[in-house]
Write a structure and sequence with these properties.
This protein is mainly beta and 432 residues long. Among the domains are: 131-300, Sulfite Oxidase, Chain A, domain 2; 309-429, Immunoglobulin-like, CATH 2.60.40.650. The protein is 8% helix and 30% strand. It has 6 helices and 26 strands. The chain has helices at residues 49-53, 146-149, 181-184, 197-204, 229-235, 398-405, and strands spanning 35-36, 84-87, 95-98, 116-118, 131-136, 142-145, 155-162, 187-196, 212-217, 224-228, 237-242, 245-246, 256-258, 271-277, 292-293, 299-300, 309-314, 319-320, 325-334, 340-346, 354-355, 357-358, 368-376, 381-389, 418-421, 427-430. Strands 6-5-14-9-10 form a 5-stranded mixed beta sheet. The longest helix is centred in the middle third of the chain and has 8 residues, at 197-204. The model is unreliable at 37-43 (pLDDT under 50).
């Protein structure tokens, strides 16, 4: 048994062996982590007596270290922590890359691991030649260089961005068997810094008749979407920085529109044009895509806001528990409607639930990390997490979501995910 636990500590508060979340605040206790190839987390030695015996005199104590570097990179020993790329065969440049959620901790996604969705590749944009234009129903059309934008007052905010197609394998008849990041990883969280769009729109002088804005990117696809003016005036950012550095090309360099809490397609990368108008353009990405046919025969359109969602990232599919012990269950929760109010965890397939510990600070429209102590007795178990946001919205079970939306959906899947743990400690995705 790992750590310093009393009998009281190990009294379950819910089925399946869930323990009181306050145990995580107790000093001196140690939890076991699920192992995920090729790494195995170990708290008390590697288990290899020879390696442990050499700890006091490793070879790097006897040689000069490497030189300075102009830009730091991850350790070569972490080279397996990369985005999983899922490009389409045709057309070229169309596809996605997934954030490896199962390998990350905290709430900030490293910029180099932020998910990607490209419709026509990553454009090579010279910032000196790039322009952002605001025109249409405004008093005066404006054109900004990147240098102009960098002189405006800026604000920063930690925000998640989630593709509307994230987790769409959940609509399949059979549960997909992949690491959690490889089918839920079209979501990431960064600190975005830029100019409040309301400042630029006020400078242009928006006509009272205007109610929509068509945002267009500078990729060869000229991706464009229609957005309500009210949302853009409320909290949208013309982002120039991500996690303290200038945007990376695959995430919109040199200028990206960031729309807090709204689906990824609305966060237009390589932003070049904002057409202020009085109606949506009804483009491909708001009619043929990101729209769902409901059982009633009506189409669900312009949903925009990403509903509350949570995932257990450890233990998760592809990982293995190393025998009965005390484990920490942890994962991520987020909501496009505001802050996460609580996350409940179940270890008996949803028969009983217990409230998880939330890492602070809990911020609006941002990742929230949750944790839960669990005494696994070696018997089969089904793990679930369920997010509730500050509006009272509760993440639905899968059967509830399908009853509401039908089976024609492809986007906006946010049902509770279930992981089955068998007697050997192997974790699989199940519908439960």
């Amino acid at each position: 048994m790992a750590g310093k636990f009393s009998d009281c500590d190990l009294t379950p508060i819910a089925g399946g062996g869930l323990l009181d979340r306050r145990l995580l605040l107790k000093s001196g206790v140690v939890f076991v982590a699920a192992a995920s190839s090729p790494t195995c987390f170990a708290h008390a030695g590697t288990g290899d007596p020879q390696q442990d015996a050499n700890w006091a005199d490793p070879p790097w104590l006897h040689q000069t270290g490497g030189p300075f570097s102009g830009y730091g990179t991850p350790s070569k020993y972490e080279k397996y922590v990369v985005r999983n790329i899922g490009g389409n065969r045709a057309p070229a440049g169309d596809g996605v890359s997934w954030t490896p959620l199962e390998y990350l901790e905290g709430i900030v996604t490293p910029s180099g691991l932020h998910f990607e969705r490209h419709h026509n590749g990553v454009p090579d944009i010279d910032p000196k030649q790039h322009r952002l234009v605001i025109h249409g129903r405004v008093r005066q059309a404006l054109m900004f260089t990147v240098e102009n934008l960098l002189r405006y007052p800026m604000r920063s905010q930690f925000l998640f961005i989630e593709c509307g197609g994230n987790s769409n394998a959940g609509w399949h008849e059979e549960p997909i068997q992949r690491p959690v990041g490889s089918f839920h990883g079209l979501v990431s969280c960064s600190e975005w810094t830029g100019v409040p769009l309301s400042v630029l729109l006020d400078e242009a002088g928006v006509d009272p008749s205007a109610s929509w804005v068509i945002a267009e990117g500078a990729d060869a696809n000229l991706l464009n979407v229609s957005l309500p003016l009210s949302k853009l005036m409320d909290d949208a950012i013309v982002a120039l920085y991500q996690n303290g550095e200038r945007l990376r090309p695959e995430n919109g360099y040199p200028v990206r529109l960031v729309v807090p809490g709204w689906e990824g397609i609305t966060n237009v990368k390589w932003l070049r044009r904002l057409h202020v108008t009085d109606q949506p353009a009804m483009t491909r990405n708001e009619t043929a895509k990101y729209t769902e046919l409901l059982p009633s025969g009506k189409a669900r359109m312009f949903t925009f806001v990403m509903d509350a969602k949570s995932l257990i990232t450890s233990p998760s599919p592809g990982q293995t528990l190393k025998g009965p012990n005390i484990y920490e269950i942890h994962g991520l929760a987020w909501s496009g409607r505001g802050k996460i109010a609580k996350v409940d965890v179940s270890a008996d397939g949803g028969k009983s639930w217990a409230e998880a510990l939330l890492d602070g600070p809990v911020m609006t429209r941002c990742f929230t990390r949750f944790r839960m102590p669990w005494k696994w007795n070696g018997e089969p178990a089904v793990l679930k997490s369920r997010a509730t946001d500050e509006t009272g919205y509760v993440q639905p079970e899968r059967d509830v979501l399908i009853k509401e939306r039908g089976r024609n959906g492809y986007f906006h899947y946010n049902a509770i995910a279930s992981w089955a743990v068998d007697e050997d400690g192997e974790v699989r995705h199940v519908y439960s």
